[in-house]
Amino acid sequence: MDGNGKSLTVGKIQTPDGELTLQIPASVYIWNAAGAAQPFLSAQPITGILPETPIAEVLCAYEMGPVGATFNPSVNLMISYKVDKLPVGCQEDDLYIGWWDGTKWIKLQSAVDPVSDTVTAPISHFSIYGLLAPINPTSFSVQEIPPQQTRSDEQQLMESIVAEILPLYASDGSISRIDIDYRLPSPVTTLGLESITLVFEVIHDEKVIDTKYYSLSLSDDNGLLQYIPETDWGNGSYNFTVAVEQTAGFFDIATEAVEISIQPNNEISNGTVVRWNLLATLVGWSIALSIILIMVLLVRFKQLKNNR
Fold this sequence. Notes:
Elements: E1 11-14, E2 20-24, E3 29-31, E4 42-45, E5 56-65, E6 70-80, E7 96-100, E8 105-107, E9 111-113, E10 118-125, E11 128-134, H1 153-159, E12 162-169, E13 175-183, E14 195-204, E15 207-217, E16 222-227, E17 236-246, E18 249-260, H2 265-307
Antiparallel strand pairs: 1-2, 2-6, 3-6, 4-5, 5-11, 6-10, 7-8, 7-11, 9-10, 12-13, 13-16, 14-15, 14-17, 17-18
């Protein structure tokens, strides 16, 4: 290769196992992504989960590097196969080489050599390349598959939010405050959202009598909200609901039913207050009469003393 990246002679590059060969003719410019000469090339077999396609089985795949390397004109990529490893019903002539564009396999014009058990295709750039075998539709029985209901990403997010409703009672049996303890999902599962809205409702006699909205930042894992009734509630059954606002409406995440039975303070203490007031009045009158009696006795004592 000269300084401009041009191959001076015919050559080939082969993986150690001999399964992949890159045939490079003379006078091919081999450049990197920056348009400069690319002095080295690599090919790594992909041993993990291979990218899938519904119309073919991926027999093997290689990551060719460096990424961005180009060939002008094209070079030949040759991949070997073993006949006894082909899928049932697959013919050798059906094999082809494809490259992975990040979302799907792109089929390349390929030539199969059944003598050497190889498939060859021209390539002009490096990417992930694989050897594919078309799936034979006749090898599968056709049956009716019931539709599968899948939950949306938003629905799964809603279901990962947890809340608990904690009513706090006053001494007379009324509710003085309601705490809402919530726990949010980890930032990884928040679908890129920055905040969500929690909705708290108070329901009495099947009617919503109060609604509060709370905007929560998804940067926090958990927290505590407080709801304080702005009006006095009467006796009866009440339902509290916490929901998450979503695209299709609201998703309930917590409910709590309570029975309120208020005992007014005046019914409990009026009799005691009246008794204490009466006792205080009697004591006051007794003290006043005692003072008057003492004064009368003193005046009488002085009169008797003067008469002597």
